[in-house]
Specification:
The chain has nine helices and eleven strands. The chain is of the alpha/beta class and about 300 residues long. It folds into three domains: about 80 residues, Orthogonal Bundle (Arc Repressor Mutant, subunit A); about 90 residues, Periplasmic binding protein-like II (D-Maltodextrin-Binding Protein, domain 2, 3-Layer(aba) Sandwich), CATH 3.40.190.10; about 100 residues, Periplasmic binding protein-like II (D-Maltodextrin-Binding Protein, domain 2, 3-Layer(aba) Sandwich).
């Protein structure tokens, strides 16, 4: 029995997506091709590699046993590709970076063009992380995340802690004046996330402020919430790095404040790839230089 690299690619994509149709889409082939390749693999192995479940295809016991070896083959293939890219100056080093919209729009969208000016041989793709993002499915090469993974073959570096506060537009409390206690916020309109589209429970701030908050505007992105607060629609919890140098006014900052962290992640198999290290090191180093931007100074 002998499996080639194309077999392993099919195996890995089915494992990551849980569906032959999705694996086919990611590999740019037909569903029929994937089904045929899987059947041939299982016939050569003399056993089933996947079993159907309510949520899709899952590895069998033998499939799980060969998964780590498949990852090693993927890492070796990536290292070969990386070396060839460095040898051929006409070949583009493409890296896809995924991040929450706040960090992506306010930070990465400003610093990644600088990286490209210094490294014109690269091609950078900046994408928002989906709600159901799983780094090991290879939706992105590098991920900036609010959650620190506790399992998985992941290389992680803490980028920074950052502060969030409750904000209002300048005239929001006229003619009463700013509140002096949390209870005075009861009945005021708030903005917030759409519950079922929360990227992580770490962003569900309103429940920590008051019970029965009146949320009049919900949005899937922090940028949309920022615009709503700025236009006087309601109160909202926003990152300090987005509100700095704006007219927004912090509300009860000594009492209502939050701290969260950003993590830089990529698959362990990528740790030998120069293109991944180059981009991830740049993001890390630039974030360290900008560390004061992420803190609230009153």
């Amino acid at each position: 029995m002998q499996l080639n690299w194309d077999d392993i690619r099919v195996f890995l994509e089915i494992e990551r997506t849980g569906r032959m149709s999705q694996a086919a889409k990611r590999l740019g082939v037909s569903h029929t091709t994937i089904a045929r390749r899987l059947k041939m693999m299982e016939e050569r192995c003399g056993c089933s590699l996947f079993q159907p479940t309510d949520t899709g295809l899952a590895l069998t016991e033998i499939g799980a046993q060969i998964l780590s070896h498949a990852h090693e083959m993927e890492g070796a293939a990536g290292a070969i590709t990386d070396r060839l890219i460095r040898q051929n100056s006409d070949t583009t080093s493409r890296v896809r970076v995924g991040a929450p919209d706040g960090f992506g729009n306010a930070i990465l969208s400003h610093i990644l063009p600088e990286f490209l000016r210094k490294h014109p041989e690269f091609e950078i793709e900046l994408v928002p992380l989906p709600v159901n993002h799983k780094l090991w499915r290879r939706d992105v090469d590098i991920a900036v995340s609010l959650d620190r993974p506790v399992t998985g073959r992941i290389v992680m570096r803490k980028l920074t802690d950052y502060d969030l506060n409750l904000y209002a537009s300048p005239n929001f409390f006229d003619p009463d004046g700013p509140p002096t206690a949390r209870e005075e916020l009861r009945g005021r309109p708030f903005v917030g996330y759409i519950d079922e589209l929360l990227y992580t429970p770490e962003l569900d701030f309103n429940r920590f402020i008051l019970s029965d908050i009146k949320v009049v505007y919900k949005a899937a992105t922090v940028k949309a919430q920022f615009d709503a607060v700025r236009n006087g629609v309601g109160l909202g919890v926003l990152p300090a790095f987005m509100t700095r140098d704006t007219e927004l006014v912090p509300v009860l900052p000594e009492e209502i404040n939050f701290e969260r962290s950003y993590w830089l992640l990529y698959p362990e198999e990528y740790k030998t790839l120069a293109r991944i290290r180059c981009v991830s090191d740049f993001i890390f180093e630039k974030t360290q230089v900008m560390s004061n931007l992420f803190r609230f100074w009153g």
